[in-house]
Write a structure and sequence with these properties.
The structure is a single chain. By secondary structure, this protein is mainly α. It contains five helices and no strands. α4 (about 40-50) packs across α5 (about 60-75). The chain starts with 10 loop residues before the first helix and ends with a helix.
Length: about 80
């Protein structure tokens, strides 16, 4: 009997897990809540779904938002 072993890349989840406190603090910040670029309820729900509900399907979109937010902070765009 052969057992099929499948590989699942956990890099994205490991990355988000290590940044969990930072991401959750950032999304609660006034700067994020008041940013005209964001639909705050949507972003907040995305973060909560990923970290509290363990919805791993949100990882790619959460990662994209985090990259954009990091870029926005570096560029100082309001």
């Amino acid at each position: 009997m052969s057992h099929l072993i499948t590989y699942k890349d956990q890099t994205e989840h490991d990355f988000l897990s290590k940044l969990s406190c930072y991401i959750q603090d950032t999304v609660l910040s006034r700067e994020i809540k008041e940013c005209a670029f964001y639909n705050y309820p949507y972003i907040s729900n995305l973060v909560n779904s990923y970290f509290q509900k363990q919805d791993l399907h949100c990882a790619k979109e959460l990662n994209w938002w985090l990259a954009f937010e990091t870029w926005r902070q570096v560029m100082r765009i309001s």
